[in-house]
Sequence to fold (275 residues):
Amino acid sequence: MNEPELTPRVIAEGLDRPNGPAFDPDGHLWCSVAGGLVRVDTATHERTRIDTGGAPAGIAIDAYGRIWFADSGQNAIRRYDPDDRKLVTIVEHVDGEPLNKPNDLAFDACGNVLFTCAEYVCCLQPDDTIEQVANELHRPSGLAVLHGGETLILAEAGRQRLWRGEWDDDRCVWTHEVTWSQNVMGDPGPGGMAMSIDGRMYVAVYGSQRIMALNADGLIVETFDLPGNNPTNCAFDPYGRLGLVVSEAEKGQLLSIPGLGPGVQLFDGGSAWAL
Fold:
């Protein structure tokens, strides 16, 4: 029996601060870069850049293949449609104030968009209602909606820890939140994350030169060294070819760890957000 391949492979390089890898329904790999988005053909590794302006960070892709991204430069959640090549600003304010450096985002089971900002977390509903669901945080970064949409895990980079709580996607309320994992050390700390079907959470820890694997109790059980010091985010290839894909900002690379995975299925927004 062959051992799983755990040495990172380079998928793409020469990228400017890549972040937020995600796969579209056609199997293409997307990431954000400084001032734009990049689509990578996973068969040929051919790249296409879309200029967006701003500073795109985390991304999520809906059922129609549209690329949603947190733009920390324009303080907005924006969306790009590859079919008509249109960019749309979805939301720029919460509670009457401009968004404060949006960082990462994810869909829940009802199609709500959860996203982090510099000190808080918001929930944007398909009827355009938006509200804060957590605040008084220190640089929240990555987040994941799991277990049929009933669990929300949040990385708080500034305090090098992860939170876990119950998520009610009907009322958009996060409750019973507790510190799930502490001392996830980096500078500043944990960022994007992805869960495998065996229940391990893989966390990109900026400033650590590694991906950290946590078990169901939030304990670090394995680490995976990377060529660069600053992994920003990670995602499992749902098509089973690339394993865990990692965006790494110091070297400007997209990396594949083929032997990891498969990952749990992500929520894609379904038909909640009409064409």
